[in-house]
Write a structure and sequence with these properties.
By secondary structure, the chain is of the alpha+beta class. It has one domain: Sandwich (Immunoglobulin-like). 28% of the residues lie in helices and 31% in strands. The protein is built from 2 helices and 8 strands, in the order E-H-H-E-E-E-E-E-E-E. Strands 1-4-5-6 form a 4-stranded mixed β-sheet, covered by helices on one side. Strands 2-3-8-7 form a 4-stranded antiparallel β-sheet, with no helix packed on it. Helix 1 packs across helix 2. It is elongated and about 55 Å long.
Length: 148
């Protein structure tokens, strides 16, 4: 795999991370609007108003964005996040004490975007994070705050 990855380890939010959170919010609004359109299409076709709203949301999410499959593991000392099914585009990873932010080159465009926030169950030390991209996916491993 020959994919570019940019990694930022930040102790607090800067303007770039705030901008990315805005992009994530805008992407969620696009997904929400598409899910509502799918619901209205179903109702208009006589499929009933009580149809599969979760299915509408998941379909809208697949149409509008890349949503990687996630696995998170927590031990007494560390947190590990594993992401699968990432786009082939270059990926930017921002590691903060309370979350990871991800984006690809399409995040602000009309094409399918990766702009995602993954919140940790506990605070970490961003500087301790090890980010690895291989053919199976992306792994972020970091020490919990107070332990690095």
């Amino acid at each position: 795999m020959n994919r570019e990855i940019r990694i930022h380890k930040l102790d607090c939010m800067d303007e770039e991370t705030k901008d990315l959170l805005g992009q994530i919010d805008a992407l969620q609004k696009r997904i929400r609007a598409r899910a509502q359109d799918l619901y209205l299409e179903r109702v208009g076709q006589g499929d009933g108003a009580w149809g599969d709203s979760v299915g509408d949301w998941l379909r809208a999410e697949r149409e509008v964005s890349w949503t990687p499959v996630q696995e998170m593991e927590e031990t007494d000392r560390s947190l590990s996040v594993r992401l699968f099914e990432l786009p082939e585009a270059p990926i930017e990873v921002m590691v903060l004490p309370e979350m990871i932010l991800l984006r690809n080159g399409a995040a602000g465009q009309s094409s399918k975007a990766l702009a995602q926030q993954i919140v940790f169950p506990a605070r970490i030390h961003p500087r301790s994070a090890v980010v690895r991209l291989d053919e199976d996916g992306l792994t972020v491993l970091a020490a919990k705050a107070g332990l690095a």
